[in-house]
TrEMBL record:
Transmembrane segments: 49-68, 74-93, 100-118, 138-161, 173-191, 211-231
Name of the protein in its database record: DUF3159 domain-containing protein
Organism of this sequence: Microbacterium commune
Pfam families for this protein: DUF3159
Record keywords: Membrane, Transmembrane, Transmembrane helix
Superkingdom of this protein's organism: Bacteria
Length: 235
């Protein structure tokens, strides 16, 4: 007997990606039933005060300590990783979902390990540069190909799968949203990469913080307002 052929009901790659993105959006507090304000949606997406502290404090500690005391490099990196560890332990002790904190801890530890291995403080920001390059490229390419990542996430979040591709208004809106998100990541990369190459660690770390949540929050708000308008009009 030959190998069994794939079932017609087997999900496509787009369905798998869309389902995963939709699940991530739900965990951020978004759902097709919610009628919350954009402000509350953004606040949930950032994880509230805890999420802001977990994403900002380790990097901020590194930048401040490295600026005041560049050597030994282990000091600023150790404090940064230590803060991430403490925040993760607090989540576990309070029986809060530790996934976000664990993700941040792994990212901080990996970046610190790379910087210690090379002996360059600027290499602490290499994972962020790679992430911006990958996310920005994927967002732009997917939007240009007609499979906007934003559209996939929203489509499965709202329970319509990829049907949005048959609606000209939604397809156009998701195209521009996908390009906007891609441009955000690529803008970060274009500003931060020259600073990395010229070893301007303090300025690089500062701009990483400035171009982080302060740019992420407005993009979440605009995206949610556009999505809400689209689906209210559809209803």
């Amino acid at each position: 007997m030959g190998s069994a052929e794939p079932s017609a009901a087997e999900p496509s790659a787009a369905e798998v990606i869309g389902t995963a993105l939709g699940g991530a959006a739900r965990r951020a507090g978004l759902s097709s039933e919610t009628d919350e304000s954009a402000q509350r949606i953004v606040w949930r997406a950032m994880g509230g005060w805890r999420g802001i502290i977990e994403s900002v404090l380790p990097s901020l500690a590194f930048v401040v300590l490295f600026t005041l005391q560049p050597e030994p490099l282990l000091l600023s990196l150790g404090v940064s990783v230590g803060i991430a560890c403490v925040l993760t332990i607090i989540r576990i002790a309070q029986k809060s979902p530790p996934a976000a904190a664990f993700g941040g801890l792994v990212a901080v530890a990996a970046a610190a390990g790379l910087a210690l291995w090379t002996g360059r403080g600027a290499d602490n920001f290499v994972p962020g540069l790679i992430t911006n390059a990958l996310y920005g490229t994927v967002m732009v390419v997917a939007a240009l190909a007609g499979w906007s990542i934003i559209g996939l996430a929203v489509g499965f979040l709202m329970g319509e799968g990829t049907a949005w591709r048959g609606d000209r208004r939604k397809r156009r809106a998701f195209f521009w949203l996908g390009l906007a998100w891609g441009a955000l990541f690529l803008l970060r990369l274009s500003v931060q990469l020259p600073l990395y190459l010229t070893d301007q660690v303090t300025l690089l770390g500062t701009l990483k913080l400035v171009m982080g949540l302060p740019l992420f929050a407005p993009m979440v708000a605009v995206t949610w307002l556009v999505v809400r308008a689209l689906y209210r009009r559809a209803d």
